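just leaving the lab so this will be short. what follows is a protein written twice so to speak, once as letters and once as structure tokens for the fold. can you read through it and tell me how you think this chain folds. anything you notice is useful, everything is just below:
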Amino acid sequence: MAAHPHETSRRRPGRRLRIWCAGLLFAGVSAVVGCRLADTDGVTPVPQLLAFLPWLLVPTGLGLVLTLLGRWWFGAVWGLAVLGLLAWFIEPYGKDPEPAGTVVADVRVLTSNVEFGRGTPALVPVIRREKPDLVFVAECELSCQARLRRDVGADYPYRQAVAAAGSKGSVVLSKYRLTGTRGVRGTMGMPGATADVRGHAVRLQLAHPMPPLPRRVALWHRELGRLRAFAAADARTPTILAGDFNATQDHAAFRRILDTGLYDAARLAGSDRTPSWPARTTPALGAQIDHVLVTRHFSAAHARFLPVAGSDHRALVVELTLHVRENDPGRP
């Protein structure tokens, strides 16, 4: 029995609405995925959305439901193509290294952004419990640095710091002897050092570039570019580059750092998509912007993300093993 003409006319506006809504969802997601495909971070709001790329599966799925309800077959093909690209990009980026040579040391690394020092009281017991060999602390302002010196200074006789207020202060704590370096220039402090790990030089660098805020994307790119230059300057010496990168593997500027020959320790340990920020919604929702990057000289066995009360970031602890070949650089 044919549908009444008035019933058909009532259905058409609903179908058009579903198609329009699906098209808008697919268009928005396609703009972000297109930038990912083109290996660019684009302009605001693309860099901000790229940080949450896996969560774009939600609007894509909703769009597919609307296309089926609206019987929009071109839209279904469009949505499936976007869904396939998202699934492809969610896979871990890069290859796994194959460390070779003599095992020199097991090195436990902790990195934490304590949000203007507010997380310092909670970080101290984490450090005491986890007993890392190296600690990278971003946004560790003057009182934070004084608290760490007082409470854990006996366990970490070596340090390299940028002494500053607010988010500009940062510090690297070490059980190994350190020789200070110039670090990397940035709006916020990024100290660097060379550690003597059982007679072998290991380059250390704290990362804390500006976040990709609106009107600050170019600055964010420049500071990530300086970190890339640091990484590319010496590929032969074992290197640990750790901190709050304000970037994920879905940002082209971050991938260019990895392309210098660095590997994300959390990814090597099987935790490549575990979010570290914002702490209030992790692990259900968030982005992994805190990283420990290492050269081919290291293998990684475990990675854990730990809550730090008072901070909007979770701390990251990774278990590394340093492998050294005969022709690798020796004592610092």
Q: What stands out?
A: DSSP finds nine helices and twelve strands in the chain. Confidence is low (pLDDT under 50) at residues 5-9.
